[in-house]
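Contributing new records

If you add data, match the layout below exactly. Sequence lines come first and carry their own label; structure lines follow with theirs. Keep one chain per record. Anything else will be rejected by the validation script.
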Amino acid sequence: MEFEGIVWKKLPETKGVSARGEWQRQDVIFEMPQEFNRKICVTFFNKPTDAANLVEGQAYIVSVNVESREFNGRWYTDVRAWRVQPKQAEAAAEAAMPDMPPFGDEPSYSSTSAAAPVAPISEVDDLPF
């Protein structure tokens, strides 16, 4: 899932140790610019540089995985980021692709008449073999 959001607030980083080793987690609140602004808390798990590079007030395209799980009769939803791109990078990538040059004149395939000159076969033949 992907959404566009503005970094509203970066929460403090949390660190810990589990049976699998050390882990780091940082939550970032994104505000989605719509008619009614909504906020989404996105977790950056073991991605300290991705969360550290975010600037409050800047727009980003965020790719996330959304997962819900049950514990003791209550449901918890986790939104984890797996890619973050600045919004300007998407526009620059589209602008970097140049337009295709115009095609040349296409040969005429109309029936030949005495008034029209006949084009050589090499110009009319568009078969690849």
